[in-house]
Amino acid sequence: MSGPETGDHLSEDDALRLEQGRKLFAGQCDFIAASTSIANLPPMDGPEVAFAGRSNVGKSSLVNALTGRKTLARTSQTPGRTKQLIFFDLAQRMRLVDLPGYGYAKASKSDIKTWTGLTLAFLKGRQTLMRVMLLIDSRRGVLDVDREIMKIFDDSAVSWALVLTKMDKLKKQEQDAVIAAAEKEAATHVAAWPGVFATSSEKGLGIAELRAHITNLSRPNPNAMDA
Ligand SMILES: Nc1nc2c(ncn2[C@@H]2O[C@H](COP(=O)(O)OP(=O)(O)OP(=O)(O)O)[C@@H](O)[C@H]2O)c(=O)[nH]1
Ligand SMILES: [Mg+2]
Predict the structure, then answer these.
(1) Which of 70, 95, 100, 212 is the most exposed place for a label (fewest CB within 10 A)?
(2) Residue 4 — pLDDT band, cuts 50, 70, 90?
């Protein structure tokens, strides 16, 4: 999905979806919890969408771009910044979960084991988890370590979708190639959403479309005439 918001001719349906997404993400957004163990996860209450991917791929930046709040999720030049499962509530209609990254070679073995164990336990055992957005750095494309995660998702029947990040770092031609390759990769997995979100948190590319996608998985807006 290179994003209907980039085209001039939106269908009425698309325009409505994007508007509903914009509204949800412009509303109330609150930090709920930072969990370091399965024992202190917040109780399951309503739909959740999680952001997974290699360390430094841009998970926290994407959460910030989606919510339009620059410092909601902590980002860093240093890989391995997010060490807990961070839960945010959106207007009591959806929760966003910023996950620690995987594949960070410099972290200590025991740290990696803790984050990975916790993240996997969360991904496998969370009935309220509607979808995992699996982030891929567009400059690197899908790596074997990402494929291992895809296999875990597929095996545990976790519904997931591919999100390419940092698209602003690529030229147009390179963008087209990486989108095509990612779409091909997604098509080989039954549990994967059949499309790819091409995004740049820095430039706002693909953000409106991703908001609409997540909003579609949320609780209906109790106050909306147009919900
Ligand atoms: N150019 C560009 N840089 C980005 C974009 N998104 C994130 N970055 C940069 O990538 C680096 C890592 O971003 P984070 O959002 O902290 O990445 P993360 O996946 O949360 O990292 P961990 O929590 O360590 O797993 C930061 O320096 C960001 O500024 C983007 O869309 N474009
Ligand atoms: Mg992070």
Answers:
(1) 70
(2) very low
122 Cβ contact partners less than 8 Å away, ≥ 6 residues apart: 38, 41, 50, 85, 97, 99, 129
Whether residue 167 has pLDDT greater than 90: yes
Alpha-carbon separation of residue 84 from 87, 100, 137 (angstroms): 9, 6, 21
- The yes-or-no verdict on residue 76 having pLDDT over 70 is no
Could you tell me the distance, in angstroms and rounded to a whole number, from the CA of residue 56 to the centre of ligand 1?
A: 5
Residues 221, 93: contact at Cβ < 8 Å?
Answer: yes
pLDDT for 122-138, tens place per residue?
A: 988 899 999 999 999 99
9 C-alpha vs ligand 1 centroid, how far in Å? 32
Mutate to test the pocket of ligand 1, among 51, 71, 76 (most ligand atoms within 8 A of CB): 76
CB-based contact 158:191 (threshold 8 Å): yes
Residues with CB under 5 A from ligand 2 (ion): 59-60, 81-82
Mean pLDDT of the chain: 88
151 contacts 124 by C-beta, under 8 angstroms? no
Domains of the chain and CATH, by start? 4-215 (3.40.50.300)
Task: Answer yes or no: is pLDDT of 104 > 80.
Answer: no
Ligand 2 midpoint to CA 7 (Å): 31
The structure's pTM equals 0.92
